[in-house]
Design goal:
Layout lengths: L1 E8 L8 E4 L8 E6 L5 H13 L24 E8 L2 E8 L2 E4 L6 E4 L2 E8 L2 E6 L2 H12 L3 H7 L1 E2 L6 H4 L2 H12 L11 H33 L26 H65 L1 H18 L2 H30 L7 H53 L2 H19 L2 H58 L1 H6 L28 H39 L4 H78 L5 H45 L5 H7 L3 H29 L11 H48 L2 H12 L11 H24 L4 E6 L12 E6 L4 E4 L5 H22 L7 E5 L7 H14 L5 E5 L3 H6 L3 E6 L5 E5 L1
Parallel strand pairs: 3-15, 3-16, 10-14, 14-15
Antiparallel strand pairs: 1-2, 1-4, 4-5, 5-8, 6-7, 8-9, 11-12, 12-13, 16-17
């Protein structure tokens, strides 16, 4: 059994839904459930137990506080457990009964408990049971563990961990009775009278069993060619049926010969085991030699590569030296780049300034104006041109003013016409809006049903598909039921045949024994040497006939089970399909789907019509709003147009008078202004050029002096040598990178080659083929030796089992004659009275045997955990004052050589002993439950009582538990465990009160 997922809501300390994914810890194998005391760590295990079995042990006998105290009245309480077994994957959803507000009226009502069991089929959850009794019955068959067994082997819960170790015999018996179900032994006493009557009949059966076991052993001897001639009933070399036993050979002699053959088989097994060990050593040595040779080959290849790389780098050294010199000169010249560029730029600017001055003087002299002070003359002319510029602008804009006046007149006429048209449109638009609104409302009523009609159409399609599936499954189910009926009939016939053969076999035992009687030899039944009336063996039935009938019965039973599983699977699928079809057949569902599709198409077309009408309506509403807005704007525009027309008329008259005054003797104001402006510009240009030329000459002189001084202080002779050495920044970076990379790579290759040369590897290429061939041959020899050793060991074990069984059965035949006297006294012994000096009942005796197995299983771990000091031992010593006895547990201390009570152990010792005993109990209970696989285990106990070394031992034991794919969950708040176990579930109490589960 393996847990996959847990969901809790409104349970214990958890109010909001918490999800635990156990599959996330499958790779780690072990995870820690950590948190502060009282946060709710153990409540996770409570939720698992409640989900699977509907109860939590620590709340039994008192108030069932399963619902969270943090829940509001309307909050749900629910636990979902998802798990898998060999039968499949299942999900249990369970809720306890709790009070909730009434849906009608005031006050509270009890919400009844609920449970739902689902199975995963084809990726879909299918319901198995929805009632408490049905779910419990299904879970019993699925889990194969009672709740007590589950708590003892999977959930080692808090306060129950050491209960089994420290309990008295009476309490331990009660616990073992619940785990192993030994109540049936109380009925044994009543059946002993029947056993006395059956004792006579059992003798013949026992003799036949002894013969069958001897035949089986002799067949094994013959098959394995284990030795000498056996007296009778030896099997041929092909493993065929044994021959009849020779009359002269007694059972003791046959057993002695078989024991001799067993000794030869043991010797052969030991020899094959030694050969296997030798072959394994040779295979390991060959693998190690091959691995070392492969390492040398890789080193040889790396050495040759390093040599070639170092030679290439040495050959590049001259070019690298040249690049290094070029890079160093470029760095020195880079310092002089700025002074040289500054001097060159300054000289060019001075020449340009002198040319500008010459051109400006030529232009000024062309005007033939006598002005000693150019700046004063230019300023006077500038003041005069101020008024002319305004007149020039008016002169240029005069045509535009005339055009504006014409345009203002036309705009005024257009506004008057537009006002009349808008008034006419404003009277017709409202009627159109009312018509469109009516059409829109009618289409919307049809379109609003689109979603409902689409859902109806999808549901109809689903029902149609399900109805077709129902029809198909009905046909398949008829075939499956017919196959199941045929298989059941065949199985019933096979069972009847087998019963008849067994009865004939029992009836013929007397005749079979009579055929072995010889004159003068004692009868194995009564001991008489006279045989006056031996029985006849008229209707012989061999063991092979019984085996063949049983094999046929088993084959037909498997066939019936497969047919039953197939029919049940089809019924599950049919039930799911019937639910989806909702009671409709294929024809009705097809008609329903067609009608739904037509209605959906009409509704969807109405959606587009609504959109179009909405657009038309919105456009009409917007048009009405704009017409209302335009009315006020038109009135304002009309008033503004009239005012603009009057202002333009006045401005045109004033502009014409100002232009006439400013024109003077020139053809236009612009012509007079242009002539004066040109003269002023020439004067300014000449004055500015003279000043700029003087400044540039001084700058050039300073820059040239600085450049010459910088060159004198450098390693260069002149400007030309500096310019030859200059390189761009990218070229300098490339040179530097080339030099550095060469140096780094050369040093790296030298270090690699130095280490490899020290290994003195051969110069010739290493050949791996011989070593690989030897390794493969050694592995084949080892594999062959393993197979031979396994066969020899298996044969010795089978022969030993046959000998032991035959000897045991043969030894008991002598006791059968006195069985009546034994049975007469046995009733008192079973009840713990009479000669039963240990006062142990039969049930106690059976539980003592189970307890011995549990103690043996526990000691396999406790010896390692206590470094060989402690061992648990079963004690059947009498208890004081007639108390229940026979199920005691004591601790053997190797340091003292004495046994002592388990209560005398310290806290840490008690923990380790309890852990070992609990794990041993889990192993035995698991085996008794059918050998089910347990892939999930939880341990909830205080690890805080352990010191560091003991905790390490406990952690090592827990680590061993996760082997084989098992996932182990440990509940603890010990910091050392939190450091050693990285995979964790942390339970944290929030500041509001409820707890939350966080995964790390």
């Amino acid at each position: 059994m393996q847990l996959h997922r847990l969901e809790v809501e409104g349970f214990g300390p958890f109010r909001a839904r918490q999800v635990v994914d156990f599959d996330a810890f499958a790779d780690d194998g072990i995870f820690l459930i950590a948190g502060r005391t009282g946060a709710g760590k153990s409540s996770i295990l409570d939720a698992v137990c409640f989900g699977l079995y509907g109860g939590v042990p620590r709340y039994e006998g008192g108030e069932k506080r399963l619902r969270s105290d943090h829940c509001e009245p309307d909050d749900p309480t629910e636990v979902v457990v998802e798990f898998s077994t060999s039968a499949g994957r299942y999900r249990v959803t369970r809720s306890p009964d709790y009070e909730r507000p009434k849906k009608r009226g005031g006050g509270l009502t009890v919400q009844p408990a609920a449970v739902q069991l689902d199975v995963l089929v084809g990726g879909e959850w299918i319901g198995l049971a929805a009632k408490e009794r049905e779910a419990a019955h299904e879970l019993d068959g699925i889990l194969q563990l009672s709740r007590e067994q589950f708590l003892q082997v999977i959930l080692l819960a808090q306060n129950r961990f050491s209960e089994f170790l420290l309990a008295g015999s009476k309490d331990r018996q009660a616990l073992l009775r619940r785990l192993f179900g030994t109540e049936r032994f109380e009925d044994v006493q009543a059946r002993f009278d029947e056993r006395r009557r059956e004792a006579e009949r059992a003798l013949g059966s026992r003799l036949a069993t002894v013969a069958a076991r001897l035949d089986e052993g002799e067949r094994i001897v013959a098959t394995g060619q284990l030795g000498a001639e056996l007296g009778g009933g030896t099997a041929d070399s092909t493993g065929g049926p044994s021959e009849p036993v020779a009359p002269a050979v007694t059972t003791e002699k046959r057993l002695a010969r078989l024991r001799q053959a067993k000794a030869r088989a043991d010797y052969r097994a030991e020899r094959r085991a030694a050969e296997r060990a030798d072959a394994e050593k040779m295979s390991s040595a060959a693998d190690a030699a091959l691995s070392a040779l492969r390492d040398d080959q890789r080193a040889q290849v790396e050495r040759d590569r390093a040599r070639a790389a170092l030679a290439r780098l040495d050959a590049e050294e001259p070019q690298i030296a040249q690049a290094r010199a070029e890079w160093e000169n470029a760095r020195a010249a880079e310092i002089l780049r700025a002074p040289i560029n500054a001097a060159t730029t300054a000289e060019a600017a001075a020449v340009f300034a002198r040319n500008v001055e010459s051109r400006a003087r030529t232009v000024w002299e062309a005007y033939d104006i006598d002005a000693p002070d150019l700046a004063e003359w230019a300023e006077e002319r500038t003041r005069q041109t101020g008024a002319w510029e305004r007149a020039s602008q008016w002169e240029l804009s005069a045509p535009q003013l005339d055009a504006e006046l014409v345009a203002a007149t036309e705009a005024l006429d257009a506004l008057l016409l537009h006002r009349e048209e808008s008034e006419a449109e404003r009277r017709t638009v409202p009627a159109r809006l009312e018509q469109v609104t009516t059409e829109r409302d009618e289409a919307r009523r049809l379109a609003d049903r689109a979603d409902d009609l689409a859902s109806a159409e999808r549901a109809a399609a689903t029902r149609r598909a399900a109805a077709l599936e129902v029809a198909r499954l009905e046909a398949e189910l008829v075939v499956a039921d017919r196959a199941l009926a045929d298989a059941s009939a065949l199985l019933a016939g096979a069972q009847s045949t087998l019963a008849q053969l067994r009865q004939r076999r029992l009836d013929g035992f007397a005749g079979e024994l009579a055929t072995a009687l010889r004159e003068g030899e004692a009868c194995p039944v009564c001991g008489s040497i006279e045989h006056p009336a031996p029985a006849e063996h008229a209707d012989p039935v061999s063991a092979e006939d019984i085996d063949r009938a049983e094999a046929e019965r088993d084959r037909l039973a498997e066939r019936e089970r497969a047919a039953g599983d197939a029919a049940a699977s089809l019924r599950l699928e049919q039930a799911a399909a019937l639910t989806k079809a909702d009671g409709r057949d294929a024809e009705a569902s097809a008609t329903e789907q067609t009608r739904a599709a037509e209605a959906l198409a009409q509704s969807r077309s109405a959606v587009e019509r609504v959109r179009q009408l909405d657009e038309q309506r919105d456009a009409l509403i917007e048009r009405i709003r704009r017409l209302d807005d335009e009315r006020d704007a038109d009135e304002a525009s009309l008033a503004s147009a009239r005012e603009t027309h009057a202002l333009l008329t006045q401005r045109v008259d004033e502009t014409r008078a100002a232009i006439t005054e400013a024109r003077g003797d020139f053809a236009s104001v612009a012509e007079r202004l242009a002539a004066t402006t040109a003269e002023v510009a020439a004067a300014h240009a000449l004055a500015d050029a003279v000043a700029e030329r003087a400044r540039r000459d001084e700058t050039a002189s300073i820059a040239t002096a600085e450049r010459d001084a910088a060159i004198d202080e450098s390693v260069f002779d002149d400007v030309a040598s500096v310019e030859r050495a200059l390189r761009s920044p990218s070229d300098q970076q490339a040179l530097e990178a080339r030099v550095s990379a060469h140096s780094v790579q050369r040093e790296k290759e030298r270090e690699i080659l130095f280490d490899l040369e020290l290994r003195t590897l051969p110069e010739e290429p290493i050949d791996l083929h011989p070593a690989e061939q030897e390794s493969q041959a050694a592995r084949r020899r080892w594999t062959t030796a393993v197979d031979e050793a396994s066969r020899a060991t298996a044969m010795a074990e089978q022969l030993g089992a046959a000998i032991d069984a035959a000897a045991s059965e043969h030894a008991r035949t002598a006791d059968d004659a006195g069985e009546y006297e034994v049975l007469r006294d046995l009733a008192d012994t079973i009840a713990g009275r009479g000669a039963n000096t240990r006062k142990m009942t039969l049930e106690t005796f059976v539980l003592a045997a189970e307890l011995e197995e549990i103690v043996d299983a526990a000691n396999r771990r406790l010896g390692d955990m206590s470094t060989g000091r402690y061992q648990l031992r079963h004690s059947d010593a009498l208890a004081a004052r007639g108390a229940a006895s026979g199920l005691g547990i004591v601790v053997f201390d190797a340091f003292t050589g004495q046994t002592r009570p388990a209560q005398s152990l310290s806290g840490g010792e008690t923990f380790l002993s309890s852990l070992a005993l609990a794990l041993g109990l889990a192993e035995v209970v698991t085996a008794r439950a059918g050998g089910i696989r347990l892939d999930t285990l939880f341990i909830d106990e205080g690890f805080g009582s352990l010191d560091g070394d003991t905790l390490e031992v406990a952690m090592r034991t827990l680590d061993e538990l996760r082997q084989g794919g098992r996932t182990v969950g440990v509940i603890s708040h010990v910091e050392a465990m939190q450091e050693q176990i990285p995979a964790q579930l942390r339970v944290r109490a929030t500041s509001e009160g409820p707890s939350v589960i966080e995964s790390r």
